């Protein structure tokens, strides 16, 4: 048996990078909350929202602080329609991010909500409790709110998709 050249020892606690730990954006006093806190507050209240430009009407996802279409900063928060249509999907069996690795395999999907592209959004999200082979392009899906507990007393919120039967 060949002896490993290097050993990597992981700490008891892993501080996740901001991309995997959204707590600072969900905490209104966090350093990264500016401009995006409302998105997470709305998730905690059971609503998936995004920004819409008051000047040109463009709907954007993810939420923005300036419209990429007309460069206006006159934006409003709007609710994303609850039901959409499956546009693309794949199954993740291996290599899932740390916080969801215990849930693999699961489906990663892109769904379109509203009148895309004119006045709708295209969003990627996870799908649990559905088999890849039971999905097809055009299936109806709806977004649901996901509560993430821990570490400690912290609660985080995100969204996922469910197939509409």
Largest sheet: 5 strands, antiparallel
> Can you tell me the residue ranges where pLDDT is under 50 for at least 5 consecutive residues?
1-11
Radius of gyration: 18 Å
Strand order of the largest sheet: 6-5-4-7-8
The proportion of strand residues reads: 35-45%
Number of helices: 2
Number of strands: 8
Shape by Cα distribution: globular
Instruction: Please bin the fraction of helical residues.
Output: under 10%
Mean pLDDT: 80
Kindly name the structural category. Answer: mainly beta
Terminal-residue CA separation = 53 Å
Pattern of helices and strands: HHEEEEEEEE
Q: How does this model look, in words?
A:
There is one protein chain. The protein is mainly β and 165 residues long. It has two helices and eight strands, in the order H-H-E-E-E-E-E-E-E-E. The strands form two sheets. Strands 6-5-4-7-8 form a five-stranded antiparallel beta sheet. The chain has a three-stranded antiparallel beta sheet with strand order 2-1-3. A hairpin with a 3-residue loop joins strand 5 (106-115) and strand 6 (119-127). It is globular, with a radius of gyration of 18 Å. Mean pLDDT is 80; it is low at 1-11.
Task: Give a quick set of tags describing it.
mainly beta, 3-stranded antiparallel beta sheet, 36% strand, 8 strands, disordered N terminus, 165 residues, 5-stranded antiparallel beta sheet
């Amino acid at each position: 048996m060949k002896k490993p050249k290097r050993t990597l020892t992981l700490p008891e606690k892993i501080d996740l990078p901001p991309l995997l730990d959204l707590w600072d954006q969900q905490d209104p006093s966090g350093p990264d909350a500016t401009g995006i806190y409302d998105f997470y507050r709305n998730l905690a209240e059971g609503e998936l929202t995004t920004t819409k430009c008051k000047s040109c009407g463009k709907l954007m996802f993810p939420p923005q602080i300036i419209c990429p279409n007309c460069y206006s900063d006159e934006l409003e928060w709007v609710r994303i329609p609850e039901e959409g249509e499956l546009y693309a999907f794949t199954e993740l069996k291996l290599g899932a991010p740390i916080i969801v690795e215990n849930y693999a395999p699961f489906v990663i999907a892109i769904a379109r909500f509203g009148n895309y592209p004119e006045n709708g959004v295209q969003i990627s999200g996870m799908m649990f409790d559905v088999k890849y082979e039971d999905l097809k392009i055009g299936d109806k899906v709806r977004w649901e709110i996901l509560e993430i507990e821990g570490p400690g007393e912290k609660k985080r919120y995100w969204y996922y998709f469910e197939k509409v039967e």
